Amino acid sequence: MPSHSLETILKNLGEEPLNEAPALRARLVPELKRYLDEGRAEAEKVLLEKQSGLACARTLSAQMDGLVRAVHNAVVGHLYPADNPSMGERLAVVATGGYGRGTLAPGSDVDLLFLLPYKQTAWSESVVEAMLYVLWDLKLKVGHATRSVEDCIREGMADMTIRTSLLESRFLFGDRELYNTLVGRFDREIIATSAPDFVDAKLKERDARVAKAGASRYLVEPNVKDGKGGLRDLNTLFWISKYVYRVREPEELVKAGLFTPEEFRLFARCEEFLWRVRCHLHFATGRAEERLTFDMQRVIAERIGFTGRGGLSAVERFMKAYFRIAKDVGDLTAIVCAELEARQAKRRPVLDRMLGRLRRRRGGALVGDDFIIDNNRINVRTEHAFEHDPVNLIRLFWLADRHNLPVHPDAKRLATRSLSLIGPHLRNDPEANKLFLDILTSKNAPEVVLRLMNEAGVLGRFIPDFGRIVSMMQFNMYHHYTVDEHLIRSIGVLTEIEGGQLENEHPLADQIFASIRNRRALYVAVFLHDIAKGRPQDHSVAGAVIARKLGPRFGLSAAETDAVAWLIEHHLLMSNTAQSRDLSDPATIKSFADVVQTMERLKLLLVLTIADIRAVGPGVWTGWKGQLLRNLYHETEVMLGGGTADLARSERVRLAQEQLRAELPDWRQDMFEAYIARHSPAYWLKTDEARRAKQARFVQEADKAGRTVTTAYETDQFRGVTEFTVLSPDHPRLLAIVTGACAAAGGNIVDAQIFTTTDGMALDTIVLSRAFDRDEDELRRAERVASAIERALKGEVKIADLVDGKRPAKERAKAFQVPPEVVIDNTLSNRQTVIEVSGLDRPGLLYDLTTALGKLNLNIASAHIVTFGEKAVDVFYVTDLTGTKVTHSGRQATIRRTLLDVFQGEEREPSPRRSA
């Protein structure tokens, strides 16, 4: 406890009154500040030693109780003594809001109500003002109100926030009778007559709050206080329960019949865990931080004492525990909502809510032998439905999907309490597996039903391998959801594609879906593609092994099981190839086609890849990625149809030139021949017809105007990119200058294609991700980027200075560790060496890498930029200055060492990468 007690502090003020408020504060505040600091240190010690969040919060609340009382006593004793107080000088000091619950987080507000008998007097006004000045001098965040009993009742009737605050009021000191009058009138005049309105308002308030904080409880940076499954949800449950059941303490909810003893223990466990996390978060950040950001997750995991185990790091184990608690809070919410609905319908108390209501509802519309349609939801007919036939644990959700009806919360709750019935016998039951496969491959709403099964605990128990990834977080900035939520969302995307709901966004997938023969295999593969996450081995390979085990159990044929296993093993292949390889290089297509082998696999892999990327999180899918996938699909389709990408290379060049000639009817023949002679065969093979025509006119206009450095740009809303064409005298550091200018001007490069004409000019295409939805906004930004590129290429500015000006002071990516890696491969392209660099992303990394490659005297033919959250994967197709591959082992070692050295700069002030 603090070394100086509050009694000692008051005694040290002296017996002589300090008649001036400034003098009192000057004596009192430093002592109270020391008391607060020592008290908080003591509370943090309790938290770290006992790992009890509630003990910490109650300790802080008790300390604050004493402090507020001490401030009051000092003010009344020295400034405004009331030896013989009149009726108008009665005052009660009341804690409200969160402080009223007797719990206080280190950074929380202190909410106080100064309660008066009827109206404020000069004495009470002076006392309240003087108290507040002391509390403010202590840097406390004080929420306060001065009201009479009548004011409280009137404003409580009109304002739901005030009503909630009064609901949690707690007497601190002063006139107890005054406080009792308020409580009695509040109970009789407000609570007794407005329960339905209060419940409705609080549930709507919760929906709005959750929508603002992030609708899913599985967001990987959750808000501990206001997010779905957070403390505020528990608060809302208790507010509603207090209001409807007229209880004062949470323990009374068992006696009222709302919770079973086990469920109340779950409530208490959730509350304790969330308070523990919140208190640690406030202490660790030194402020009222409620969001569990990536950089704090490691810190909190360590403070709580989590360690790595079973293939999961300490932070991943901590976040898995957090998300399980969030799920439990959701279950408790469903229980309360179901009971409130029943209470409203029956208008009578229920002693044993579960058994009593199940027995009364046997008269509902019968669905089979064990289920009824109860108030437009699927419910069990008796409490013995699952004991009678454990297959009913799967049939319940199958019926919900078949009849397109939700599962009643009581049935879901009974299913959760019956999970022990799901063992090897049920898992291998042919009927149970057939029902599950029907759910998974349903054309109704499999995503919704699978989520219900997951929330009830049935899904993880029925498929233990799925149970291992329930609530599992992937500690990175790329994945927005837990693994189980990602898989379920992937099924939702797949259903939308099949239903034609994403035709405009995925025209190719929509077009080919009807021709897919292995529909069941596709759904199972999408559902299982990340099921082996969190294991020491590669999750794609381990997932394929799991699929070979589960396929026959689900009732898939041997061919279907093989298809599922192949898809899972290669589920990242198409995405990685499309985003990080040169799709105009025949070797890329051949390598990809050699793995895919058949058109059916190509179709399946395309659709799975789209579902996977779209389910990662908001903003991850872009039209640019879609275009890359379509390009890869069409190029591979040609090869799988019997053609080869290198067939008649000279003929393809000739056809490309003839197509361009047709696009330029106004050009003289000699001018056209001179132009095509400036380009190498690679240019004609790698650029599409529309781009060739635009670039021909762009170069001609530059020649006429005598411009050796110039740019052009255009937006593409469907692909979500803006393309820049850059013309400049070529030199090894050209791409480094362009990438640096883009970074300094706020451009996020996703692709780059570089060509050098026979007369020494570089004609480059730089693709930036779109920053604005409206074309006029995007074009203004493009103009700024183009101007920055031209100024840098003309030497009007020093690019290093531009980049240095964008160096951030601090990055969230510091929370992550991505070991840098450089892979040099001469088999991936027939003409260039492919250098793949991966590591921790940072603003300006692309500039740093291209600068390093330029200093190594390497010509960059194309660059392909991929970012997976905090991880950057940059791929460069390069040659040496003679135009040949880099084959010498010593030269390769130098390249590898130089590029790895770029990442050592992360220990110093980071240099800007792609600014967004």
TrEMBL record:
UniProt KW Repeat keyword: yes
Family annotation (InterPro entries): ACT-like_dom_sf, ACT_dom, HD/PDEase_dom, HD_domain, NT_sf, PII_UdlTrfase/GS_AdlTrfase, Polymerase_NTP_transf_dom, UTase/UR
UniProt GO MF annotations: [protein-PII] uridylyltransferase activity; phosphoric diester hydrolase activity
Signal peptide: none
EC code: 2.7.7.59, 3.1.4.-
GO biological process annotation, one example: regulation of nitrogen utilization
Superkingdom to which the source organism belongs: Bacteria
Family of this protein: Belongs to the GlnD family.
Function of the protein: Modifies, by uridylylation and deuridylylation, the PII regulatory proteins (GlnB and homologs), in response to the nitrogen status of the cell that GlnD senses through the glutamine level. Under low glutamine levels, catalyzes the conversion of the PII proteins and UTP to PII-UMP and PPi, while under higher glutamine levels, GlnD hydrolyzes PII-UMP to PII and UMP (deuridylylation). Thus, controls uridylylation state and activity of the PII proteins, and plays an important role in the regulation of nitrogen metabolism.
Entries under PANTHER family matching the protein: BIFUNCTIONAL URIDYLYLTRANSFERASE/URIDYLYL-REMOVING ENZYME, BIFUNCTIONAL URIDYLYLTRANSFERASE_URIDYLYL-REMOVING ENZYME
Record-given protein name: Bifunctional uridylyltransferase/uridylyl-removing enzyme
Gene: glnD
